[in-house]
Specification:
59% of the residues lie in helices and 9% in strands. It is of the alpha/beta class and 1349 residues long. It has a 7-stranded mixed sheet, sandwiched between helices. The chain is elongated. InterPro entries: AAA+_ATPase (IPR003593), ABC1_TM_dom (IPR011527), ABC1_TM_sf (IPR036640), ABC_transporter-like_ATP-bd (IPR003439), ABC_transporter-like_CS (IPR017871), ABC_transporter_C-like (IPR050173), ABCC_6TM_D1 (IPR044746), P-loop_NTPase (IPR027417). This is Multidrug resistance-associated protein lethal(2)03659. It is found in: Membrane. GO terms for molecular function: ABC-type transporter activity; ATP binding; ATP hydrolysis activity.
Length: 1349
């Protein structure tokens, strides 16, 4: 997908393509993996080095040698120039002085040219490596074995996000600092030797002091790397938790668990920040030491030099200062940082290697090479292409398998045990069994997702798979169905028709080009199931694995899907159907009954119908007649399916909702919000004072040193003039010597010792202020980081549901991972550097102008040029940074979406390579923006250095042009050394200010989510409660459970800035009243608005009209209280990677005894007691280690715990078997006998004894009444059919019963929708309809008797 904001950028350069470099790295990694065959250990670092190492080292070593020569030569030229202006002038010619001046300026310019060229090479190399590693990580993700447990299943999404965002990004800093590990010690040795030549053994004393700190700083670096590793693990955990919150946000809102999960996230965040805080303080200590240790070392060298009765000169002092500055920049600052960055990158390499070594599934797909390869990706070892027909497509022989080999599962019963099953061509095999028996696991085994513990499995065919939990990705309906296959219009239309999608697509505004959102959030459960089935059927495979696709649709649609698709479109294919609808087992060629992971029965319906409990209820009386009718219906449906012209396929491109992008400069309000989060205006004032005071004292040390050196030179010159040496005895004959205090240059007439004391005092003050400002500043930034994360979490969790419908989870996670990481670890560092830089620049310019006031003019010109360059640069860089953040979200969303749909994706093996290519294309989008930014950065840095070199030239040559008798070597040395420092400082500082503003875009993006419009109102309106509900005990509300809908419309909202197009109403003018304790079922065809009714009740979307519970509206009760006092079981069971106890009771309200009682009520106590950890047993991501039915039962256990007056079930039993469904319904009738129950159901047998049925169609209530009342019109072909089934007596008593109870039924006057409930019952078949009628009649009579009593 190419988005609008990337069109302005050029295409990714061929040499930067992620797929190309991913192939290269994959090839070397494959060579490393082969070492395991010989007992060796694969090394990912070795694979990287073999590709990028030689070229990288050659360029870096060459650059390091040349640049070091330049930097070492510059102080030698400076010495010569200072000597020219010194009072102790040694007769140097003007030509020599000019050559020295040209040497200083020229070498600085050449060094700048080389440095920026080398930095561009290093950063591009790291960018290529990052993309290659990301490509390899994604390819591994496509092959990872989810059944292996550990990191391969639990927290996989957070793990992947961290690897792709944080770990791979560390290569950038490592590429810059790696060569310094070798270069800096060698360069420092040479500098120490040159210093020794200047001041002798005094240099050893100063350098020795510095060397004492190097082991300490290196030790700090090692500690920092360990802390970084610990921080990464804790960040993984936080992101994993955030992903679960985002994935289950609808359930969290319905249960009002926002505060509970806020505490969970806060706890994870606190643990993470504890490590980050320690790490930050450690860096503050390292920075402070590196900043001031050179000053202390310098004073040690000067004092020792004076103590040995040597004469100090400006040349010696400022040359030594220049050398010490080099040592500070490289040995003291860069070397420990190099160790830290390289160790952090090494940790990242190890983490990536650990991920790449995780177990893989047995898939015959070659993902080692994808660049320029348009083949389907099947390996040559085992071709899955269609060959001649086989007698056995799939064969299990004594097959046994377990989901995990972890300690927790040892000793437990295998997921599958001793499976013997043969699947033959052109057969329909139906798999039935209770919840958790292993039906879905059997399909996972065929997909090679579950490796065998023992036995054999032969799969000699291609397979296509429809998962029980529908997986859809954020694209159009058509893209989800064809799933990368070539578009065949004829087949596509047939598939859409047989999967009963025609009506839905016609209702969609953009037809089959309508976007479904991530995981199909814009669709109903039935629509998701049918699109998932359509994708499976569209694939041309030998065997189709269908995991209960009929559970999420109503009976009529299920029957049509079964006849049109499974028995119609796929009649000449092999189908394995997992279902709890046992009525569909009648037509299977083979029925397989699974219990406890074992096949207990196999055979045809005739062979098993009396031996299997699930089939005993099927009556034999009308079997022949029903089958005849069904065959006739099948012929009709087949003829209809051949007419494919009724579907109008829309070729209009879908309009993707791209991530919003700010424009222009980062607003000042963003900076103010960041500062306010850290401590407010007082904190800002204290920080500014500390920074200004620290810089003032630091600059004062340089000024004081220059003043002292000038006095010392003047003293040496005068005493030299007044001293004569005897040629005879070589003794000193003293003449009139001038005292040190009486020198003209000694303005304050103070002694040498006072100069020393003041200099030491200034350094001590600098040390104290630097420590104070760094600790205070970092603490302020950390407070801001914590508050910003909390604000963003609250903003996201309080946001309306439209926000999650229009923003994929990868996009949201990017802000909680990449943006928060920038604020946590980088922003405070850059802010500190920027503040220090501005103050240092002001101080340098001030000092230089003090030495020569004529330099005010070039100083002003340079300042203007630097600001102009910065403004030009920021205009481009800021937008590039924003585009980068958005393009990262695209690839992250692709990866996170892949994690949630891995089994489905891998079932279409020939699309794995396509998905890998798509991921690399998304990476190429990011590479395009990043490469432009890198080039822009280097161009900006280069021109900054050019301007600074011009300024250095003006400073240096100004002393030749404006030379006076007062020009002293100390002043010249001070001005030139300050200007030299400005060259490197300016380009670095200006780049840091730009980088700081770029990183402030992360704060901007965080604040954007923190300021999302919140659901209102969240808290109760106490005033309205007192005025309108006097006498109401709100703490006990609702006591009765009366629900009243009055003219309710529900609209699925779009983001506020989006233009609303079309009609988004899901329910229209709905009005009804549910009496206290009444059991009401909501039925209707798929997409009729049943789930939207629950969304309206829980106020998940915008509504108009009125909804009250016991007379109180949500506006008065507050959304949190409103939702917490009701209880719902949504379509999708939401479980988290935590213990069973935490899943059932995240708020920790209930005791273990209460939880066990609730589990017993929902038939799950045996499952929990069978686990080694009991309630402390871990649940995998999304409950992945449980069956769909077990997951739904756990959610029902939450309801049993809550015991609310209102219970809402949204197809809660769709994924459980009939027997378990009966037990659940019995639990609801007994345990919730006094509660008001509102149930959405497709299994009509579960609701026929309800007090009332509400029938919905196209968002409206079209029928309402007792099931018996709604079945008054004949539902069979004739009344005789009913009497033959023994139900004719119902009509004999109909009028009498109606007179006793009254007719409470309501029907729509629209003839088109009249009798929908009757048709739904009729669609189940004659047998089932007769049984349902009897159930409705019995319930009706019992209701009358109950009223009479």
């Amino acid at each position: 997908m190419v988005t609008d904001y990337c069109i302005v950028l050029f295409r990714c350069s061929p040499q930067h393509r992620a797929a190309l470099h991913g192939d290269k790295l994959a090839e070397k990694w494959l060579d490393e993996l082969k070492k395991q065959e010989n007992g060796g250990t694969p090394s990912f670092l070795n694979a990287i080095f073999r590709i990028y190492g030689p070229k990288f080292l050659l360029f870096n070593v060459t650059f390091a040698f040349i640049d070091s020569c330049f930097r070492i030569t510059i102080p030698i030229c400076l010495e010569g120039l200072i000597n020219y202006f010194s009072p102790l002038h040694s007769g140097m010619t003007d030509l020599s002085a000019y050559l020295y001046a040209f040497g200083i300026v020229g070498l600085m310019f050449l060094s700048a040219v080389l440095t920026h060229s080398m930095l561009l090479f290093q950063l591009e190399s790291s960018m290529i490596l990052t993309k290659a590693c990301s490509s390899l990580i994604y390819r591994k993700l496509l092959r990872i074995n989810l059944a292996a447990g550990g990191k391969a299943s639990e927290g996989l999404t957070g793990y992947i996000v961290n690897l792709l965002t944080i770990d791979t990004e560390r290569f950038q800093m490592a590429s810059i600092y790696l060569i310094d590990l070798v270069r800096i010690p060698i360069e420092t040795t040479v500098i120490v030797y040159l210093m020794y030549r200047q001041i002798g053994v005094s240099a050893i004393f100063g350098v020795g002091f510095l060397l004492l700190f190097i082991p300490l700083l290196s030790y700090f670096g090692k500690i920092a790397s360990k802390l970084t590793e610990k921080m990464t693990v804790r960040t993984d955990n936080r992101i994993r938790l955030m992903n679960e919150v985002i994935q289950s946000i609808e359930v969290i809102k319905m249960y009002a668990w926002e505060n509970a999960f806020e505490k969970i996230i806060k706890n994870a965040r606190r643990k993470e920040m504890n490590v980050i805080r320690t790490l930050t303080w450690l860096y503050a200590m390292m920075f402070s030491c590196s900043k001031l240790n050179t000053q202390i070392a310098l004073i040690i060298s000067i004092l020792s030099f004076i103590a040995f009765e040597n004469v100090i000169t400006a040349a010696k002092i400022f040359v030594v200062i220049s050398y010490y500055e080099s040592i500070r920049m490289y040995m003291v600052e860069s070397f420990p940082m190099s160790i830290t960055m390289v160790l952090e990158s090494y940790i990242s390499v190890k983490r990536i290697q650990e991920f790449l070594l995780l177990p893989e599934v047995e898939k015959n797909v070659d993902l080692w090479k994808i660049f320029g390869d348009d083949k389907n990706g099947y390996s040559a070892g085992k071709s899955l292409l269609k060959t001649e027909p086989r007698a056995e497509l799939i064969k299990f022989k004594d097959f046994t398998a377990s989901w995990s080999n972890s300690e927790e599962t040892k000793g437990q019963q295998p997921a599958l045990s001793d499976i013997n099953l043969t699947i033959k061509p052109n057969t329909l095999t139906t798999i039935i069994g209770p919840v958790g028996s292993g039906k879905s696991t059997l399909l996972m085994s065929i997909l090679e997702e579950l490796p065998p513990s023992s036995g054999e499995l032969a799969v000699n065919c291609t397979v296509s798979y429809a998962a029980q939990e529908s997986w859809l990705f954020d694209a159009s309906v058509r893209q989800n169905i064809i799933f990368g296959q070539d578009f065949d219009a004829v087949r596509y239309k047939k598939v859409v028709k047989c999967c009963q999608l025609e009506t839905d697509l016609k209702a969609f505004q953009h037809g089959d080009q309508s976007l479904v959102g991530e995981k199909g959030v814009t669709l109903s459960g039935g629509q998701r199931a049918r699109i998932s089935l359509a994708r499976c059927v569209y694939q041309d495979a030998d065997v189709y694995l269908l995991d209960d696709p009929l559970a999420a649709v109503d009976a009529k649609v299920a029957q049509a899907m079964y006849q049109d698709c499974i028995r119609g479109f796929l009649q000449n294919k092999t189908v394995l159907l997992v279902t709890h609808h046992v009525q569909f087992a009648r037509y299977a060629d083979n029925i397989c009954v699974i219990r406890g992971g074992k096949i207990v029965s196999q055979g045809t319906y005739q062979e098993l119908r009396t031996a299997v409990t699930e089939l005993e209820q099927m009556s034999e009386a009308t079997e022949d007649k029903t089958e005849k009718k069904e065959n006739e219906a099948l012929k009709t449906q087949k003829s209809l399916s051949e007419s494919v012209n009724s579907l109008d396929v829309n070729d209009e491109e879908p309009q993707h909702k791209d991530e919003s992008q700010s424009e222009g400069a980062v607003s000042s309000s963003v900076y103010i919000s960041y500062i306010t989060s850290g401590g407010g205006k007082i904190a800002l004032f204290v920080l500014l004072m500390l920074f200004v005071a620290g810089q003032s004292f630091y600059s004062s040390t340089n000024l004081w040193l220059a003043k002292w050196v000038n006095v010392e030179e003047a003293n040496s010159a005068i005493n030299l003039d007044n001293t004569s040496i005897s040629n005879d005895n070589k003794t000193l004959l003293n003449s009139t010597l001038v005292d040190f205090e009486d020198l003209d240059k000694n303005t304050w007439h103070i002694s040498r010792s006072v100069y020393v004391y003041i200099y030491v005092t200034l350094i001590v003050a600098c040390l104290f202020l630097t420590w104070s400002k760094m600790l205070y500043f970092y603490n302020t930034c950390l407070r801001a980081s914590i508050k910003l994360h909390e604000a963003m979490f609250r903003g996201v969790t309080n946001a309306p549901m439209w926000f999650f419908h229009h923003n994929p989870s990868g996009r949201i996670l990017n802000r909680f991972s990449n943006d928060i990481s920038q604020v946590d670890t980088m922003l405070h560092w850059n802010l500190s550097e920027c503040l220090s830089f501005f103050l240092e620049v002001v101080a340098v310019l001030f000092v230089v102008c003090l030495v020569n006031w004529w330099l005010l003019f070039p100083t002003a010109a340079v300042a203007a040029l630097l600001w102009l360059l910065r403004s030009l640069y920021l205009t481009t860089s800021r937008e590039l940074k924003r585009i980068q953040a958005i393009t990262v979200s695209l690839s992250l969303n692709h990866a996170t979406s892949t994690v949630s749909g891995l089994p489905t994706i891998r079932s279409v093996k020939n699309q794995l390579k396509t998905l890998a290519k798509e991921f690399d294309k998304l990476q190429d989008l990011h590479t395009t923006a990043q490469s432009v930014e890198l080039t822009t950065d280097r161009a900006f840095g280069f021109w900054m250095d050019v301007v600074c070199c011009l300024y250095l030239a003006s400073v240096t040559f100004s002393f030749f042009i404006f030379v006076t008798g007062d020009t002293l070597g100390g002043n010249v040395g001070l001005a030139i050394t300050q200007a030299i420092s400005l060259v490197g400082m300016c380009q670095f500082g200006m780049r840091q200010t730009a980088e700081m503003e770029n990183q402030m875009t992360s704060v901007e993006r965080i604040l954007e989510y923190a300021d999302l419009p919140a659901e209102q109102p969240t808290e109760p309106d106490t005033k309205a409660l007192r005025q309108n509900h006097t006498g109401l005990d709100f703490n006990a509300w609702p006591e009765n459970g009366e629900i009243v809908f009055k003219d309710v419309f529900l609209e699925y909202e779009a983001p506020p800035q989006k233009e609303k197009k079309g009609d988004n109403l899901a329910i229209r003018g709905v009005s009804f009243k549910i009496r206290p304790g009444e059991k009401v079922a909501v039925v209707g065809r798929t997409g009729a608005g049943k789930s939207s009714l629950i969304a309206a009740l829980f106020r998940l979307n915008k509504i108009t009209g009125s909804i009250t519970v016991d007379g109180v509206t949500a506006e008065v009760a507050g959304l949190r209280t409103w939702r917490s006092r009701l209880f719902a079981l949504p379509q999708r069971p939401a479980l988290f990677a935590a213990t069973l106890r935490d899943n059932l009771d995240p708020e920790q309200k209930y005791s273990d005894a209460q939880i066990h009682t609730a589990l017993k009520e929902v038939e799950l106590e045996s499952l929990v007691t069978g686990l080694a950890g009991g309630l402390s047993s871990r649940v995998g991501d999304g409950g992945g280690n449980l069956s769909s039915g077990q997951r739904q039962l756990l959610c029902l256990a939450r309801a049993a715990l809550a015991r609310r007056a209102v219970l809402v079930l949204d197809e809660a039993t769709a994924n459980v078997d009939t027997e378990t469904d009966k037990q659940i319904q019995n639990t609801i009738r007994t345990k919730f006998s006094t509660s008001t129950v509102l149930t959405i159901a497709h299994r009509l047998n579960t609701v026929m004894d309800y007090d009332r049925v509400i029938v919905m169609d196209k968002g409206r209530v079209v029928e309402s009444g007792h099931p018996y009342e709604l079945l008054q019109d004949e539902i069979f072909s004739s009344a005789e059919d009913i009497r033959n089934d023994g139900t004719g007596y119902a009509f004999d008593h109909m009028n009498k019963i109606k007179k006793m109870l009254g007719d409470h039924s309501q029907r729509s006057n629209d003839s088109k929708v009249k009798g929908i409930f009757k048709s739904l019952v009729a669609q189940t078949g004659s047998e089932s309809a007769a049984i349902l009628y009897k159930m409705a009649e019995e319930s009706y009579v019992n209701l009358r008797l109950k009223k009479d009593s």
